[in-house]
């Protein structure tokens, strides 16, 4: 039947005055044009039908997964399958007398079919990834990494299939040859393999999630993780620049993840005032009386002074020298004041560690460190709370006859200024 129709068209062309060779080529061209136009027209009709059906389903369905299928052109790719299959069936019919060209055309169409299948699979999995991102439980998971891994295997299988179609060698023989070329393959896909292993470990150990604030000094990264893929992790720094980090660096190098702080009840304040050693001294009775005007530590001074006086009296301590017996110091009273001030500060989390401690003396002075946690973890508010605390403490130092250490400036520099 195929040959009969081919001969009808061929005989008509010969009768029209063409020689046999010209008639054969013109006959082939006409049949190819008819087949391509038919396939194009059929593709257009199927696409319009699929688009209409998919849009209606997307509007009526309760889930938005089908919306992502449409957005990622899955129906459009599916519309190509039937026209491509028809072209495969029409090749023997159109290429009668051109057997070698028919073989090449069939191989080309089979390769297109493999590529089309890969695009359909890619679009479906991209739709799955986009859909999972809308779910809170998957939003911070590197699902894109797993899809990339699957697509790598899919493309490798597709490439092997294409080679098998072109060379007419069975697919399993290509896989047999992988043993001999495994070293080369490992070298080519080294980063992908390392990224795959790292991505799995990062996910299983819950080391990094999308949205985490991480600091990675080696790569100059300090900001929020916005993307985790098979090979790289993208971090948007606080200056809005983007730093790209190899995924495997997350398990081979050290970095800081601030998620624990963000999930905890507060953000740590750890900063010291450097007190000049020359300003530290024992307190006299007149000093104690003066300091009792400070309401926050008045009860402490009253109780503590009575205890010290009782001890010194019962032990016949000679108080002609202040060093004898037990005494209050201005830095000790100030330390108590700072602790009480923090305990009464509304922005400090009282349920977490709160202490004022004296660090070892330095050539510059005595560091008095405040170790506490701000209830508000947002960066701008945290900085405001910390500045508010230290503004007050620096201004309070003179009331305790204490001074912050400052590097002396030569008089010549002052005169020039």
Structural account:
This protein has helices at 2-15, 20-60, 65-71, 74-78, 81-94, 99-133, 143-167, 171-176, 182-188, 190-204, 249-252, 259-263, 285-291, 298-314, 330-343, 379-396, 411-416, and strands at residues 213-216, 221-228, 232-237, 242-246, 256-257, 267-275, 355-358, 366-374. The protein has three domains: 2-139, no CATH class; 201-259, Roll (SH3 type barrels); 267-400, no CATH class. The chain contains 17 helices and eight strands. The strands form two sheets. Strands 4-3-2-1-5 form a five-stranded antiparallel β-sheet. Helices cover 58% and strands 11% of the residues. The mean pLDDT is 81. The radius of gyration is 40 Å and the shape is rod-shaped. With 417 residues, the protein is of the alpha+beta class. α2 packs antiparallel against α3.
Brief write-up:
The chain contains 17 helices and eight strands. With 417 residues, the protein is an alpha+beta fold.
**How many beta strands in the DSSP annotation?**
8
Structural class: alpha+beta
Provide the succession of SSEs.
HHHHHHHHHHEEEEHEHEHHHEEHH
Strand order of the largest sheet: 4-3-2-1-5
**Overall pLDDT metric:** 81
Amount of helix: 55-70%
Low-confidence stretches: none
Distance between the termini: 106 Å
Query: What's the alpha carbon Rg, rounded to whole Å?
Result: 40 Å
Largest beta-sheet details: 5 strands, antiparallel
Q: How much of the polypeptide forms β-strand, as a percent range?
A: 5-15%
Q: Which overall shape is indicated by the principal axes computed on the Cα atoms? A: rod-shaped
Number of helices: 17
Integer count of domains: 3
